[in-house]
Structures are given as C-alpha cells and as structure tokens.
C-alpha cells in the first residue's frame, strides 16, 4: 500500500512538472533585461524580455517581440538551451505513458508484476533525464544572458522551468527508489474468473 501511494505521488508530481517544462519551453519571459543601468531603465520605463524564441521590448504602451529565427547568428547557448528544453518536453511523453500503464488501477491482461516494474523503472529514469535537461537549460541560459546584458530579474518562464524540473526530479527519484520491487507490482491484483462448478463468478488472486 505504501509503495502504491509513493508511486502515485511520483506520477502526479512528475506529470505536473512535465507540464511546467512544456510551458517554460513555449514561452519567452525567461529573463528581464536592461540595455542601460537599472536606474536608467526604470526612469525610462524601458525593459527587455529575453527567451528561447524571441527578444521583446517592454515600455509604456508598447510590447514588441523580435523572433529569433536566424539560427546561424544565434548564440550557442540559446541553441543549446532550445535543444535541451525540446528534448525534455519530448522525453516526458513516453515517460508519462509508461507510468500511466503501471498505475494500480490499470491492468493489461495477465501481465506479470516484473513487466510493470521494468516499465516503472524506465519511466522513472526518463523523468530524471528530463529533469536534468531542464535544470541545465534553466541555469545555463540566465548565466550566459547576463554576460551579454544586464539582467534585472528572472521571468515567470524561468521559474516555471525550475519548478517543473524539480518536480520531475523528485517524482523520478521516488518512482525509481521508493515505489517497491517487482513483487509488489504483482501483489493485490485480482480478477474474476468463471468457475466450472458454479454459475457465479469466483474471486481469485493473481500474483
């Protein structure tokens, strides 16, 4: 029972974290930048927003974004962070699918517990890989962006990426380390089979 609860906690936290990683990947408010000193930018009310896909200018009554479409002239860290976040978003899909198929409420025929255990471990490892990609990208990007311009603050996209990656790392570690062994995945699985000598259905344990 404890292993099942831990598995559910790991799955829910990982799923929420994966959604957060996707949101961080698709939005551009990673860092708020300033082309001058912070005091000057505040007086002029002119700030910039930098993300993976566009550079934006935020001023009074103006919000204009310039898409970063020219891959040749893009800084290397932007391209690397793009690749890491896209990889994290894509890896999350099979990870969530694998973990969904091993939930206690889902049974695929007379599948042994060892098969579910292997899928659970693979899903947990993919989640940890997802989290590492997200953590590296969300730390690398602001550090390199600060070398190019002055960062006033972090944007909501970066916070979303941090929280999502942390949840995926937590969920993956819980699933890999704390959700039980192969035997626990085969316990408490019941099915109904027709009895040869009785017209009623008899409940029998399937381990």
TrEMBL record:
It is a multi-pass membrane protein. PROSITE patterns: CLAUDIN. One of its GO terms (molecular function) is structural molecule activity. It is found in: Cell junction, Tight junction; Cell membrane. GO terms for cellular component: bicellular tight junction; plasma membrane. Pfam families: PMP22_Claudin. Keywords: Cell junction, Cell membrane, Membrane, Phosphoprotein, Tight junction, Transmembrane, Transmembrane helix. The chain crosses the membrane at residues 83-103, 124-142, 162-182. Claudins function as major constituents of the tight junction complexes that regulate the permeability of epithelia. Belongs to the claudin family. Interacts with tetraspanin-3/TSPAN3. Interacts with OCLN. This is Claudin. It comes from Pelusios castaneus (West African mud turtle).
């Amino acid at each position: 029972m404890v292993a099942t609860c831990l598995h559910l906690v790991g799955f829910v936290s990982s799923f929420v974290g994966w959604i957060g990683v996707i949101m961080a990947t698709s939005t551009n408010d990673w860092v708020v930048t300033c082309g001058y000193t912070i005091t000057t930018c505040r007086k002029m009310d002119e700030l910039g927003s930098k993300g993976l896909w566009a550079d934006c200018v935020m001023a009074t009554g103006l919000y204009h974004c310039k898409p970063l479409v020219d891959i040749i002239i893009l800084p290397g860290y932007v391209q690397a962070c793009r690749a890491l976040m896209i990889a994290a978003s894509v890896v999350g899909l099979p990870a969530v699918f694998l973990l969904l198929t091993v939930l206690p409420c889902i049974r695929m025929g007379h599948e042994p517990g060892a098969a579910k255990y292997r899928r659970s471990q693979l899903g947990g490892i993919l989640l940890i890989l997802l989290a590492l990609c997200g953590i590296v990208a969300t730390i690398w990007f602001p550090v390199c962006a600060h070398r190019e311009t002055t960062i006033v603050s972090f944007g909501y996209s970066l916070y979303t990426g941090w929280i999502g990656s942390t949840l995926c790392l937590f969920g993956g570690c819980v699933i890999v380390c704390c959700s039980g062994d192969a035997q626990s995945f085969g316990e408490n699985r019941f099915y109904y089979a027709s009895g040869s000598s009785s017209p009623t259905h008899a409940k029998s344990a399937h381990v």
